[in-house]
Design a protein that fits this description.
With about 300 residues, the chain is an alpha/beta fold. The chain is built from ten helices and 13 strands. It has two domains: about 140 residues, Murein tetrapeptidase LD-carboxypeptidase, N-terminal domain (Rossmann fold, 3-Layer(aba) Sandwich); about 140 residues, 3-Layer(bba) Sandwich (Glucose Oxidase, domain 1). Strand 4, helix 4 and strand 5 form a beta-alpha-beta unit.
């Protein structure tokens, strides 16, 4: 995997909104923080716009993101938010300049679409906070993003969870938002799971939908190919009027309990305030013991 150049003070980072519209104040606060890191911040023309649900029309969002990919003075692209919309433009983008001069692309949630595209191009990317995380996120969420951008190695830790499966694995980090990961199965953007460590998180889904996604991954052969499984936040889960009868951890363990791979629940990743940064495409070491989980990136 190609590692984009780490940032230095004076480099330019570009904020663009490839999906849902975002409030001006959130971007302003993120800009202020990034400037304290010594970065020059540019905001895309339609980043603060609105076209129904989106920050702009497909053509406007496409043009904004394309400029970020093509402009050699831009060293990193921070997606303004997720929601939905990245898949509408990902295959219309021209990635030639990006492949010739890779740069960091940052985000999570719907930005999982871009992470997978970038992974297929053989380039690392950062799963981390977007502008809202600069105001509502933890100190660690901001610091791990800064470390990832400037080249300081990260180690994520989490307390022992009863449902964890102990063990150690080494592999490239792939995945992201579970709904997005499963939506890409069987498409040209489908994942290669072989010998990788799969990361999954989600928000606002019904329990039965999580079960369906797990079966999609199972039928795609994902669980038999991965070296390890990391579960981040599964926040604001909903149940049906007649309860499904099992919680998220039970459903996951049904699929992976007997595979002989380490499984780590509740890592600080996803739609939570402590959304710490990961570098997708990078080889990481996952250690799950009876006292804690560590992920060395």
């Amino acid at each position: 995997m190609i590692q984009p150049p780490f940032l230095q003070q004076g480099d330019t980072i570009y904020i663009t909104a490839p999906a849902k519209a975002i409030e001006d104040s959130v971007v302003v606060e993120a800009k202020k923080t990034l400037e304290t890191w010594g970065l020059i911040v540019r905001v895309a023309p339609h980043c603060l716009g609105r076209s129904a649900y989106f920050s702009g029309t497909d053509a406007e969002r496409l043009a904004d993101f394309q400029h970020g990919l093509d402009d050699p003075s831009i060293k990193a692209i921070l997606c303004a938010r997720g929601g939905y919309g990245c898949v509408r433009i990902v295959e219309e983008l021209n990635w030639t300049s990006f492949q010739q001069n890779p740069k960091w692309i940052i985000g999570f949630s719907d930005v999982t679409v871009f992470h997978q595209k970038i992974n297929q191009l053989g380039v690392e990317s950062i799963h981390g906070i977007m502008p809202l995380g600069f105001t509502e996120g933890s100190v660690a969420a901001k610091e791990t993003l800064k470390d990832s951008l400037f080249g300081t190695p990260n180690m994520l830790e989490a307390p022992y969870v009863l449902e964890n499966i102990t063990g150690e694995a080494r592999g490239e980090l792939v995945g992201g938002n579970m709904a997005i990961v499963t939506s890409l199965l069987g498409t040209p953007l489908s994942y290669s799971f072989n010998n990788n460590i799969l990361v999954l998180e989600d928000i606002g889904e019904h329990v039965y939908k999580i079960d369906r996604m797990l079966y999609s991954l199972r039928l795609a052969g994902a669980f038999n190919q991965i070296k390890g499984l990391i579960l981040g936040g599964f926040t604001d889960m909903e149940d049906t009027d007649v309860p499904f009868g099992k919680d998220i951890k039970e459903l996951i363990l049904e699929q992976v309990r007997d595979l002989g791979i380490p499984v780590a629940f509740d890592l600080p990743i996803g739609h939570i305030s402590d959304n710490q940064a990961l570098v997708f495409g990078r080889t990481a070491v996952l250690k799950v013991t009876e006292t804690k989980t560590t992920l060395l990136i």
